[in-house]
Amino acid sequence: MTKKRLLKFGGIVLVLAAMLFGCWKLHSEITITVGVYAGSYWNTPNGNCYQIFDDAISSFEAAHPGIFVEYVNGIPTDFYSEWLAEGILKGEEPDLFLVMPEDIELFASSGILKPLDTMMAEDPDFSPSPYYEPCLQAGKFGGTQYALPYESVPTIMFVNKTLLQQNGISMPENNWTWGDFYRICRRITKPEKHQFGVYGYHWLHAVYSNGAALFSGDGKSCYLADQRVQDAITFSKHLDAMNQGYTVTARDFDLGNVAFRPFLFSEYRAYQPYPWRVKKYSGFEWDCVCMPAGYEGDNTSELHTMLLGISARTRHKKAVWELAKLLSIDKDVQKELYVYSHGISPVRSVAEDDEILLKMREDIPGGGSFDGKVIRRIMDTAVVVPHFDKYEQALRMAESAVLEKSDTQMLAAQREIDIFLNGS
Q1: Which of 35, 180, 219, 284 has CA atoms 20 to 30 A from the CA of 254?
Q2: What is the pLDDT of residues 229-248, one digit of tens each?
């Protein structure tokens, strides 16, 4: 072979090698898509909603060469579920996506989400033990884990400290009871002075804190006639009766005329520190405590958890699972929730971290009342409210019964709701 032909042959080999390398690289590199929304699900100010994901993706890509992660930004929270549903119908849903609390049952029962139990059991690097159990429970449907917890927000009780002080009343402790709650409201409520004990305390708040539930987890049974539920309804009616027919409003609370109001923990995180404190509630000093415990319950509150679900149609199961774990359980990622969001980490060691909580309290006048022990108490006893297919209609039926029927008619109302829940 002449030198000229040798060079030509060598050139052809190099071109073929480059083409083969390009094809190999094309097939070896994969792209994972992630579904996220803009802003805050908790309706609180959020200056940099993507920073947690950007940092996590950067870390993930560095540890997994050849795997790239993309997400579409600018999807408002209010339209996120619609955007996601549209993608699902087209078969173009993200590989990994945030699942709002109210959507988990629909997505799981429709086969949209990949069951995670097998992946969890077969992964030697994964354990569910770092999570608070209620947070993990939020991602289950029919006993199967369909999503991992990402961020949680419990309900707590806002307290107008100024109004209490003006009436010679001390701030309640985190282990307070219905009796304490009632007595304070009784002393505070003075309709003639347009001063009231509580706004927004629903009888369901009382149900949860009295060790009861309105519906079974599978959405097949209603417990409206349960004595603990009835005690909770009676207690809330006694509170309402103090107002002598006046309907207390959110404005009454904002103006400083109401002592208590149930609120999400995210509101506490967002509006206690300066400058949002000045913009939101500047007319009075306030703080928060756990919800009051019922006769047969604890200082229990409803828990809302944002979840991470994997598409059942993803072609990159293993890689997506690794990214889901990073976002859900990695301590460095979860710590950023306290910088860029207003929830509580579902990871126990992060949520109760003394350094994180100390830094959080530095911006709160008086240091705030939430330390690791209180956070643990709230999260361990929290209740995950089921959102099954007929939940909203069944709840409206229950609320109608509470308003219109006597105590002796509750069993009949419960049977009616049970028939509805089990009908086709």
Answers
A1: 180
A2: 999 999 999 999 999 999 99
